Amino acid sequence: MKTHRKAFGAFNQGGVPKIACFNQAKTPLGVNFDTLIKSMQEYVNKFVAPVWGTPANLVKSSGFLAGAWAMVFLDDADEENALAYHDLTPDGMPQSKVFVRTTLASHELVSVSASHELVEMLVDPAINLLSTGPDEKAVYAYESADPVEALSFNVLGIPMSDFVYPSYFEDFHKAGSVTFDHMKTVHRPFQILKGGYQIIFKNGKWKEVYGSAAKKKAFKKEDRRGHRSEQRANWRKLKKSRRSKV
What is the pTM of this model? Predict the structure, then answer.
């Protein structure tokens, strides 16, 4: 536990995190792995870090690296009822998982799924940041790709996920007054595009708010195990369980 507490305190504090990227999936990714890592590095350097102040060094590896964050590619979602600790490396560092077969079965691109998880991990590595917003009775999860997750743009020829800017979570901005996402498709704070959604905490429960009825229907069919939307709920359950045992 001592190691984990120390690691938690180090999330996004000083230094530039190293992210070990390794592929354990047998399913073809649909893109060269080296090219994908190179494109994600450019995505961070040129687009994400200048806006969010979250630099990172992505390295190809065969497994976890001591003291490094991780992005692991797997065929399928984790076993059912997997808890939030599955989103930590053995050293207690942030980890993203990309489920290749699940992604492709949903007719999505692995590069978009990977960059989606990458930007969200960099912006909120401990999955615990929240913001006030238009609903005064709710708080909004600091998820930087979910509201625009259906959109992507090319980086070195590889599709990468659109993402929102910090201004997205600042409700005092007037519509159209500033840039709210990279692709400039969002026009006001907390807007959810038709293909996106948002996680909020209201009345003691986590819930999703969808940009359209079609997105809600599609979302319910997705295998969300291991996704950040599930991890937020699991973190709360884990904390509640620990408090009840004290």
Answer: 0.86
